[in-house]
Amino acid sequence: MNLNAEPAELKKFADVAHRWWDLDGEFKPLHDINPLRMEWMARHTALRGARILDIGCGGGILSESMAAEGAQVTGIDLADKALKVAGLHALQTGVAVDYRLVSAEQLAAEQPAHFDVVCCMEMLEHVPKPASIVEAAARLVRPGGWVFFSTINRNAKAFALAILGAEYLLRLLPKGTHEYAKFIRPSELAGWARAAGLEPVEFKGLEFGLLDRRFRLGSDVDVNYFLACRRLP
């Protein structure tokens, strides 16, 4: 089976895997937005006791936070080095997360309708076939369960802020982190979700304040945005 991943993308994250938990390193934005991601998901469904799958878990920032809230978390990724970092950090903190080197599509064939919640954050814009990930997420969640996505819109404003601003001017992210052509319009993501049997429930924007350099949830989905979906019965 052809993996839905590009070697260059996997290498990009493998090269900095040892810095996943450096609060002032390349992944600082993920640490900064993590409480907002948790807050937003918790508005829609209870995390404690839920069986949750984190697709594209990387070094485990979100996976660990959900497990610390009492969720039964499985984190999957195709970046082996990042998974090793995630596993080591979980051992250090004593948080139980089941990390697996497996694709979303393969796991969907093994464990359909197994999870109460599936999340895929900051990953869809890094894979060749994002619609395939959306379809796999829909197969992995039980009927009535929740699926959460986050990604970046594709427009001139997103190019200016997410690439020129974040990578070159503010240096929030390393240069080359994102490719504009891989950004995803909300209408496209909602269309893939509906085609996979998911009902889009809420879009939410992730906004960055230039003055205080802080992220916050808002209504502006022009750049970074979240989408909450439920699987239809």
UniProtKB/TrEMBL annotation:
Biological processes, Gene Ontology terms: methylation
Q: Does the keyword S-adenosyl-L-methionine apply?
A: yes
Q: Would I find Transferase among this entry's keywords?
A: yes
Biochemical pathway: Cofactor biosynthesis; ubiquinone biosynthesis
The record, for SUPFAM superfamilies, names: S-adenosyl-L-methionine-dependent methyltransferases
E.C. number, please?
A: 2.1.1.222, 2.1.1.64
Alphabetical keyword list: Methyltransferase, S-adenosyl-L-methionine, Transferase, Ubiquinone, Ubiquinone biosynthesis
Which reaction(s) does the protein catalyse, per the Swiss-Prot or TrEMBL entry? a 3-(all-trans-polyprenyl)benzene-1,2-diol + S-adenosyl-L-methionine = a 2-methoxy-6-(all-trans-polyprenyl)phenol + S-adenosyl-L-homocysteine + H(+); a 3-demethylubiquinol + S-adenosyl-L-methionine = a ubiquinol + S-adenosyl-L-homocysteine + H(+)
Q: Where does S-adenosyl-L-methionine bind?
A: R37, G56, D77, M121
- Its domain of life reads Bacteria
Alphabetized Pfam families for the sequence: Methyltransf_23 (PF13489)
Q: Name one GO molecular function term.
A: 2-polyprenyl-6-hydroxyphenol methylase activity
Described by its record, this protein's role is as follows: O-methyltransferase that catalyzes the 2 O-methylation steps in the ubiquinone biosynthetic pathway.
Family indicated by similarity: Belongs to the methyltransferase superfamily. UbiG/COQ3 family.
The record's HAMAP family line, in alphabetical order, gives: UbiG (MF_00472)
Q: What is this protein called?
A: Ubiquinone biosynthesis O-methyltransferase
The species this protein was found in: Thiomonas delicata
